[in-house]
Records
---
Amino acid sequence: MEVSVYNINGEETGKKVKLDDTIFGIEPNDHAIYLDTKQYLANNRQGTAKAKERSEVSGSTRKIKRQKGTGTARFGDIKNPLFRGGGRIFGPRPRDYSFKLNKKVKDLARKSALSYKAASNNIIVVEDFNFEVPKTKEMKKISDNLKLSDKKSLFVLPEQNKNVYLSSRNLPGVEVVTVSELTTYKIMNASTLVLAESAVEVLHGTFKN
């Protein structure tokens, strides 16, 4: 499929870019998208939640009352989980939530996400741009020109650009990533995908290798 190339003023330049159908036009695999998104979110979990169990709570180990003859239930020490201030039964412990996912599944998931965006016409290609110094106002202007001010947008660059990244950092709903940082979650989470013109070629090379 072919898409028009826009400049930073939101105007068509007359140029066209061809998006490879093996990347942007496949039959999306929803389960692959689910697995890759699940892994991304799981890998971002800290897993540091911890609750004290009976053996870790401070308190006396003295038996509260005799075992029999009281007419009530038997009790051990004050650290019993049934008492206020006692230990917690089967509380959370530090753990690693990450899991492995095959590279082919991850590639299929990203291609599926890109195909969804292409099918719904939510991909915009803009000419390569740069800022001499970080300017949030200039990035906001580009976003407005492309009619993205009220949408979540993901700008994809071919390589790191510190000035563009810093210019977008304080804008709500705007995120800048490189092709190597592009994930299924980020693609699906954005309303519109904005590809720098030179990033399209890098994307094609990434998925064909």
---
Amino acid sequence: MNYVFTLFLIGFAILFHEFGHYLAARIANVPIQTFSVGFGPAVWKRQIGETEYRISWIPLGGYVLPAIEDEHQFFKIPVYKRIVMTIGGPLASALLTVICISIINTCSSGFSFFGTLIQPFQKSWAIGYQMTASLPQLFSAQSQIMGIVGIVAQGGNYVSGSILKSLQFLAMMSMNLCIINLLPIPALDGGKLLMYLGEKVHPRFVKLHIPFSIAGWIVIIGITIYTVILDVVKLTV
């Protein structure tokens, strides 16, 4: 049961990230066609204005779909609006880490101005810095690499029915999502930001979006398969 709850926590972290993209798109006046909680066929959906809100069958994360017909229409959206929409996800993930730490501090030591409102930002920054600094180790030490199977296995053991440990796990997963998404890989938010900024340097960068994104997804899928295989080997040895 702990493993199912761990999957739920990971899904919630992803959903909060996507909700950040959604709010940022609203702020930037980018039309949204669909905001889905979960993936797959819709269990429930409702049209409000130009946006369809839905709950889908697979409750792991969610997605935001802009109201566009094709990629040409997407690239007609001003660059600054696309940048705002893109950065909204990582900012939301970082904010969720702050919220989790604030709740943990308040539950552990009671409410205080420093512990509830200031220290969570300091701790979140420290966690983000440590994760960023440790990224090179992921590529140099195979033992440091962990995929979704390993995360769920270790997370399930760590959480073990504790609310505070669940919040700690959620905070770590959310900050991890923030840092990973800011990597300069075209399919991720960091790569998208670089490509959008490239458009300001020269409009021809628009033509590189699709091939670079395809290459980025190939890399991500390859890494995902590789880490899952490593996780299974570690768990079965």
---
Amino acid sequence: MNTRIFERRYLFTGTLALKTGLHIGSGWAVGTPSDSPIVRTPDDKPFIPGSSFKGAFRSTVEKLTPATGLKSCRLMAGQGCPGAQGEEQQAFNKKREKKKWSGEALLAQLEEKLCHTCKLFGSPYRASRIYFSDLLPPDEDDLASRMVQIRDGVAIDRDSEKAVDRLKYDYEVVAPAQTFQLQIFLEDPSPTDLALTSLGLVEFISGLAYLGGKRSRGLGNCQIQKPAMYCLDLATGNETERAERLCAYLLKKTPAEKMAPVEDVSGFLERQIKTLPIFNGENHAKATGE
């Protein structure tokens, strides 16, 4: 069985700024009168769970992927990908048990069957290659706990299009202009993984992506500001150069000391996106390098 060798890691950082209010519900919280409170840290500051941001990021990428000439099941059955629950996954599991594939044979089958977004973001058969940290307010932000508003809502009768009597409720939102610290790791990505990640990053940098609940009410619009990118490359150069890079990564502290900064982030993302099949007029295998 082939084992993956750690060769390359990317770190993307930035500030996620809210352009509109944000609601990511906790279901329950102490000390709030709201019917629908937001998630908070133990010191009462709002934050964005990494899982919530990953879901929004994955959804953003999945919407764009088919237009680029690649495949995305969007976790829906009937798309031919065993990464989504349904008949394809059941059939794949039965075939796996019947054929008794070796580890190498299973990897080959997954490489063929899984769609490109399941390869990047993970599936029941393969770990994700992209990782999202919880997004916390800046350390120096002492006002974050005050940046919470309570808004009112009413239930609407869809037939009469009028408010339903006595069904008023309220919910908490993080106020616009609040910022959060962003960290995304990409581990040993293929060229396709890197291109799809760049698609999502460009959408968020452009302020065209949304996050959290109640989006139809205008909530959740956000933008990545002050983007920065770092790369650890253990695949190129001679043995001495690779050893020096690894030593710096293991012993240094800050991202800029541990990894090589990418000077032109915008240009880097653009170059990755331009490798996608739609921009090259090439067949899928040649364009993605897979």
